[in-house]
């Protein structure tokens, strides 16, 4: 395997470069899966070669030192390290890179978070560990420029000794296409094993890793101004911090608990084992991990970190980012393995971190002073102002619940730990933390960022309880806050806690469990007895906590509505013609629970309340069926229909008294009308029906007329109008049933305008 170093084009004074490259052998790979993909898939296949390029900084000039812009071999992750692993550099280190085949990026800061890796172990005791920034994923690049500046105004601060630029090439696996069958509907994780995976240890035929040193050329001269250094203070966290620590008088311990190279069998967690991309699957470089893992005896707390890299990475690159972090932690920081126990990307895909078994209490190098008997996960990216997506929250909650659950520890609880170093807390100091805490709780750092730190409360709730459970609805019809159905309904609910952390759901009717579903279910069908009930959903977490939704009222009803009054037609005031009579349709319905609506289905359509009236018109002399359908809120229905006929009785068929004249015009019904001016002149009609109306012409010379029904005066109408109005219904009366009646019209003889012009009667039979 031929390895080339950083390409230079000139002087080399004061700068050294070194490259370490490693091949990882494997027979299975990783599938990049996109939702809905049904084409062939590209599968990672064969070994992956990683490389570390290191560049020593020149001697510092006062409080500043830089590596000018230059060409390099390919890399995708960049960081800066220095000799003293416990030095907390207070300055700023900025970097800009050139994408392969692209342009130069803006200046970007490298995060200096103050974590110093392991407290114990051969790397630390042998002096191999180095301090440094967090590595920054920049994508595949072939050019770099970097500058380090001490904190402004701090005369005592100096550029750290042994400053070194670290350029990591995580390698790119060879790819081959495979058929989409069995892959296209994969779960929303971009990396999945596609074959039986063998251990990815180097084979005897693989060349041993080699170190190659190349000569450093002079930089290409480019006028680029680096950003001025600034001193910033991390804003206060969004969450309430843990209680103040209490110091005990006990002797300072050398470690928080005993450790072991051979762990006891892992206890079973009540939480299902989370799905992870294993080290074999993300192609960890096992050849650089030269020592066996160390183990604690339990997992008391779970720390959340961010890697302080870019958030714009593609989830298809997550495995490469994890490989890069491994190389950086081992080759650059001088640790034995990747520091985190787990890593997770913004798509919610979890990666196995430090080797030793995800079910074991592996001691990592993640939270200085509190690495033993704790576990940690790092989110790929920076989450200072932007929080992590729900999928990533769910992944963290599941891993935390799994690890804490192995040892019966409550993710919502607190724990008192003893500091194993002199750091943010003194050696031997006892500190109370949330069992799921942020890196900043234990170490003086901004990690995991304000936004992510503010989300830890939700993550704890998801890890320990059925969080965000809500009964979203019942099938049937909803009126206000009550649902109505006949005999069955389906309850639906939503929840924020991942399904893997939910043991089951129980559906309660009137407080009793009537259905039990799996934790993946989000609905259940119910059969209800007649009457009013309450429905609730109770979620049971794998750790035992329960959550129950507020009660929702539902009414089961199979009784149909009734009509206490059939559709009934009555005459009303308004204009009439030979084809139109103004009428009012009335009805009355009832239900044992509640009528939702009444629909008119013939001769026209409309939707109305349970009882009421509706003004419309109909054709005279024609029998019309009026049909209606009542429906209650449960969907039960009843129909009712009645037929009615409006009939004209012309004035010519009336019995007259007094003097009456005749007007002829097409404006009158039948072409003529009777008129009288003398008081006492009358017209009488006899009919059998349930409703009647008087039709007259209104003019400026028209006066009043008295109306008698069955010998009793019931009304006096005034026929005055400033404009002539023909064929006007000026009075109407209805009865509850049909009967024989007499209607008499008597001229009142109004002074100055005594005339009455009548156009007959209309009645309904």
Automatic annotation (TrEMBL):
Coiled coil: none annotated. The chain crosses the membrane at residues 12-35. This is N-acetylmuramoyl-L-alanine amidase. Belongs to the N-acetylmuramoyl-L-alanine amidase 2 family. CDD domains: PGRP (cd06583). InterPro entries: Amidase/PGRP_sf, Amidase_domain, Ig-like_fold, PGRP, PGRP_domain_met/bac. Pfam families: Amidase_2. Gene3D superfamilies: Galactose-binding domain-like (2.60.120.260), Immunoglobulins (2.60.40.10), Peptidoglycan recognition protein-like (3.40.80.10). Keywords: Membrane, Transmembrane, Transmembrane helix. Residues 264-273 have a biased composition (Pro residues). Residues 173-274 are annotated as: Disordered. Residues 274-422 form the Peptidoglycan recognition protein family domain. Residues 208-263 have a biased composition (Low complexity). GO terms for molecular function: N-acetylmuramoyl-L-alanine amidase activity; zinc ion binding. It comes from the Bacteria. SMART domains: PGRP (SM00701). GO terms for biological process: carbohydrate metabolic process; peptidoglycan catabolic process.
């Amino acid at each position: 395997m031929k390895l080339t170093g950083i390409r230079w084009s000139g002087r080399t004074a004061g700068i050294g470069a070194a490259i370490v490259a490693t091949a990882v052998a494997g027979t299975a790979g990783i599938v990049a899966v996109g939702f809905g993909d049904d084409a062939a898939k590209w599968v990672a296949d064969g070994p992956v070669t990683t490389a570390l390029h290191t560049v020593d900084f020149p001697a510092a000039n006062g409080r500043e030192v830089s590596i000018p812009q230059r060409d390099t071999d390919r890399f995708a992750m960049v960081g800066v390290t220095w000799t003293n692993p416990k030095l907390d550099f207070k300055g700023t280190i900025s970097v800009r890179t050139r994408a392969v085949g692209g342009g130069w990026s803006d200046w970007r800061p490298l995060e200096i978070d103050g974590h110093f890796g392991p407290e114990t172990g051969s790397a630390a005791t042998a002096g191999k560990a180095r301090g440094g920034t967090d590595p920054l994923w920049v994508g595949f690049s072939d050019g770099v420029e970097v500058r380090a500046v001490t904190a402004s105004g701090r005369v005592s601060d100096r550029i750290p000794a042994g400053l070194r630029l670290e350029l990591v090439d995580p390698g790119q696996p060879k790819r081959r296409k495979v058929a989409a069958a069995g892959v296209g509907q994969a779960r929303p994780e971009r990396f999945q094993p596609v074959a039986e995976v063998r251990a990815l240890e180097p084979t005897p035929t693989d060349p041993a890793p080699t170190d190659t040193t190349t000569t450093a050329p002079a930089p290409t001269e480019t006028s680029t101004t680096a950003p001025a250094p600034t001193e910033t203070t991390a804003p206060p966290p969004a969450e309430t911090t843990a209680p103040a620590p209490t110091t005990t008088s006990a002797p300072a311990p050398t470690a928080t608990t005993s450790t072991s190279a051979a762990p006891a069998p892992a206890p079973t967690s009540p939480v299902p084992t989370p799905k992870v991309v294993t080290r074999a699957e993300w192609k960890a470089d096992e050849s650089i991990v030269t020592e066996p893992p160390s183990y604690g005896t339990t997992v008391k707390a779970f720390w959340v970190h961010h890697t302080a890299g870019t958030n714009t990475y593609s989830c298809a690159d997550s495995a490469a980012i994890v490989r890069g972090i491994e190389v950086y932690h081992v080759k650059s920081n001088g640790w034995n393995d990747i520091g985190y126990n787990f890593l997770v990307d913004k798509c919610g895909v979890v990666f196995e971190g430090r080797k030793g078994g995800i079910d074991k209490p592996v001691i990592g190098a993640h939270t200085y002073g509190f690495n033993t008997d704790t576990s940690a996960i790092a989110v790929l990216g920076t989450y200072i102002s932007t929080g992590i997506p729900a999928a990533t929250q769910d992944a963290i909650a599941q891993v935390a619940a799994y690890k804490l659950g192995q040892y019966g520890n409550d993710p919502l609880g607190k724990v008192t730990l003893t500091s194993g170093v002199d750091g943010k807390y003194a050696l031997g100091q006892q500190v109370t933390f949330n069992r799921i805490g942020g890196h900043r709780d234990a170490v003086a750092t901004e990690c995991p960022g304000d936004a992510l730190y503010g989300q830890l409360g939700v993550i704890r709730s998801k890890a320990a309880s059925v969080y965000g459970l809500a009964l979203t609805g019942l099938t049937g019809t909803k009126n206000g806050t009550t649902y109505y159905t006949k005999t069955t309904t389906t309850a639906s609910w939503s929840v924020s806690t991942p399904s893997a952390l939910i043991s089951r759901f129980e559906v309660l009717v009137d407080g009793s469990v009537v259905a039990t579903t799996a934790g993946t279910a989000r609905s259940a069908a119910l059969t209800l007895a007649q009457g009013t009930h309450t429905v609730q959903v109770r979620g049971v977490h794998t750790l035992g906590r329960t959550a129950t939704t507020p009660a929702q009222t539902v009414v089961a009803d199979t009784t149909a509505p009734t009509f206490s009054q059939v559709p009934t037609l009555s005459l009303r005031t308004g204009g009439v013609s030979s084809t139109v009579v103004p009428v009012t349709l009335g009805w009355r319905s009832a239900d044992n629970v509640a009528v939702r609506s009444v629909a008119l289905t013939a001769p026209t359509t409309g939707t109305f309340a349970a009882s009421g009236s509706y003004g419309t018109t109909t054709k005279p002399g024609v029998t019309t069926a009026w049909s209606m359908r009542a429906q209650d809120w449960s969907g039960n229905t009843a129909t009712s229909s009645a037929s009615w006929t409006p009939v004209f009785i012309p004035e010519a068929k009336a019995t007259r008294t007094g003097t009456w004249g005749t007007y002829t015009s097409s404006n009158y019904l039948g072409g003529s009308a009777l008129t009288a001016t003398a008081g006492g002149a009358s017209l009488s009609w006899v009919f059998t029906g349930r409703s009647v109306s008087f039709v007259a012409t209104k003019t400026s010379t028209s006066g009043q007329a008295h109306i008698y029904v069955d010998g009793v005066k019931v009304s006096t109408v005034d026929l005055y109008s400033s404009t002539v109005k023909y064929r006007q219904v000026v009075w109407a009366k209805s009865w509850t049933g049909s009967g024989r009646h007499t209607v008499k019209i008597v001229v009142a003889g109004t002074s100055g305008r005594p005339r009455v012009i009548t156009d007959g009667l209309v009645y309904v039979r």
